[in-house]
Design a protein that fits this description.
Layout (H helix, E strand, L loop, with lengths): L7 E7 L9 H13 L1 E10 L7 E6 L3 E7 L1 H20 L12 H19 L5 E5 L6 H7 L5 E5 L19 H6 L3 E4 L2 H13 L7 E3 L6 H14 L9 E6 L8 H14 L7 E6 L13 H16 L7 E4 L5 H10 L2 E4 L8 H9 L7 E5 L12 E3 L4 H12 L3 H17 L2 H12 L9 H10 L1
Helix pairs in contact: 2-3, 3-4, 7-10, 7-11, 8-9, 8-12
Bound molecules: adenosine-5'-diphosphate-glucose.
Adenosine-5'-diphosphate-glucose (ADQ) binds next to helix 1, helix 10 and helix 11.
Length: 457
């Protein structure tokens, strides 16, 4: 870990409240902060009845955690509003779902400006400031306006929008200024960098700080959890003879209705002699206070109900939809047991479930990953069966192919995928981002891309 520069100041919408945080990204940031020392700042969660002024320290140790409160108005306008009813749909290519209401833009800017003042008060010369995600796009611009000249980096966890979608954004003209205020503007994929470049080219903007840092997981930790869970759990799952797994937050970007329809296309072409495969979809609701999320559940349940009505037999329910949260370790065990991982978002920054599925598999008898070409992960994971999630027939064919794939082909595909997941893991990602933030030379192109380039020469 580079020791150049001062402390690390991380800013994200959520901060962990546990002593020992869990979850890949949270753990990686926790480790980086523990090693280097610094401060982690995030909102204290939902709206507060009596919001406190400034930052409140919530934990200290190797590094400190500080929270800022959101009032009811902040929560409505900044979090549910501009962040999740404007930026999230627009960046996921769903401009039709944008819901701009009076006060949202002002609320978003006000929270960012208030936060900038709090950060400016605690930042010391040499500190590196690392801002996460779409909640805080204008933060560097707000810091610069206050005279903060520290190095400030950003990482966008969701896709960068296409240049033709950006004009649908209130304040579309400010977007490049927000981006330009960062020393490094990190995104998940080369495609995202190209989209930023295309936007800059449209307005002849001079933005050249975009970089791709595809986020990874802790594959060893995930594999160990999967083995422990699969061994200790008798998994009386009453599933079919083959298991297809889907794991997502219930979000329109994840393409769950399309996924069910793709599975329906498989069921329609299935022969009686084929194994009875069950699609186990785990998708707990998220952001239920945002209008666009309200119909998804009903739509999904009716699609599952119709397919089960048509294809279920006395001893087989083709789709099982679980709306509860499943503990991370247990989930890892279920993934290990699965024959197919179905990861088919319509748009996704990266999608860590694809990487977790690969890490969880037994290399001697691995399951097959079916991956949407619109997941950021597809750029690195070309050895998956890549599908167009809008094409149910293509998805159905891929499911058929995955369920009947030879052991040799499964092993070869899995070995190539696992190699990528292990090489570009969460530690590689953190290190690459921090090196770039500190202004050091960094291998910007993923190693797998170099290897492919070299082998093509
Ligand atoms: P998310 O949209 O939340 O994250 P994703 O990367 O798939 O999407 O999942 C994050 C984590 O949540 C994974 O570790 C996964 O196992 C876990 N998870 C998801 N559904 C779950 C469930 N039903 N039960 C239990 N755990 C579940 C955003 C972007 C992504 C990007 C990440 C990280 O939208 O594209 O990959 O940030 O940058």
């Amino acid at each position: 870990m580079s020791q150049k520069g001062g402390r690390l100041i991380v800013i994200s919408n959520r901060i962990p409240t546990d002593e020992t945080p869990s979850g890949g990204l949270v753990v990686a940031l926790h480790e980086a902060l523990t090693e280097r020392g610094g401060i982690w700042i995030g909102s204290s969660g939902g709206p507060q009845e009596a919001p406190r002024e400034g930052l409140t320290q919530i934990a200290s140790g190797a590094y400190s955690r500080y929270a800022f409160d959101l009032s009811h108005a902040d929560y409505e306008q900044y979090y549910l509003g501009y962040a999740n009813s404007v930026l999230w749909p627009l960046f996921h290519r769903r401009a039709d779902l944008i819901n701009v209401q009076p006060g949202m833009v002002e609320g978003y800017m006000a929270v960012n400006e208030r936060l900038a003042k709090m950060v400016a008060e605690i930042a010391q010369p040499g500190d590196l400031i690392w801002v996460h995600d779409y909640h805080f796009l204008p933060l560097a611009a707000a810091l610069r306006a206050l005279g903060v000249d520290n190095r400030v980096g950003f990482f966008l966890h969701i896709p960068f929008p296409t240049a033709s979608d950006v004009p649908a954004l209130p304040q579309a003209d400010d977007m490049l200024d927000w981006v330009a205020a960062y020393d490094v503007f990190g995104m998940q994929t080369e495609t995202d960098v190209q989209r930023l470049d295309a936007l800059a080219a449209r307005v002849e903007g001079k933005v050249n700080n975009g970089r791709a840092f595809p986020i990874g997981i802790d594959p060893v930790g995930y594999r160990d959890a999967a083995i422990a869970s699969a061994a200790g759990d008798n998994m009386a799952l009453s599933l079919g003879q083959k298991l297809i797994i889907g794991v997502d937050r219930l979000d329109y970007s994840k393409g769950l209705v399309h996924r069910f329809e793709g599975f329906g296309a498989y069921l329609a072409q299935r022969q009686d002699s084929d194994p009875k495969a069950t699609l186990l979809q785990i998708a707990p609701p998220s952001r239920e206070n945002v209008d666009a999320y309200q119909d998804i559940r009903a739509h999904l349940e009716s699609t599952a109900g119709a397919l089960n009505g048509e294809y279920a037999e006395l001893d087989w329910t083709p789709i099982r939809y679980i709306r509860r949260n499943v503990a991370r370790e247990r989930l890892a065990g279920v993934m290990r047991r699965a024959d197919v991982g179905l990861v088919t978002p319509l748009a996704d920054g990266m999608n860590l479930v694809a990487k977790e599925f690969v890490a969880a598999q037994d290399p001697d008898d691995p399951g097959v990953l079916i991956l949407s070409s619109f997941a950021g992960a597809a750029e690195q994971m070309q050895d998956a069966l890549i599908v167009n999630p809008y094409d149910a027939t293509e998805m159905g064919d891929a499911i058929q192919k995955a369920l009947s794939m030879s052991l040799d082909e499964r092993k070869a595909r899995h070995a190539a995928l696992l190699d990528g997941v292990q090489t570009q893991d969460i530690h590689w990602w953190t290190q690459s981002c921090l090196d770039a933030l500190a202004g050091e030379r960094v291998w910007l192109r993923p190693l797998a891309t170099w290897a492919r380039t070299l082998s093509a020469l």
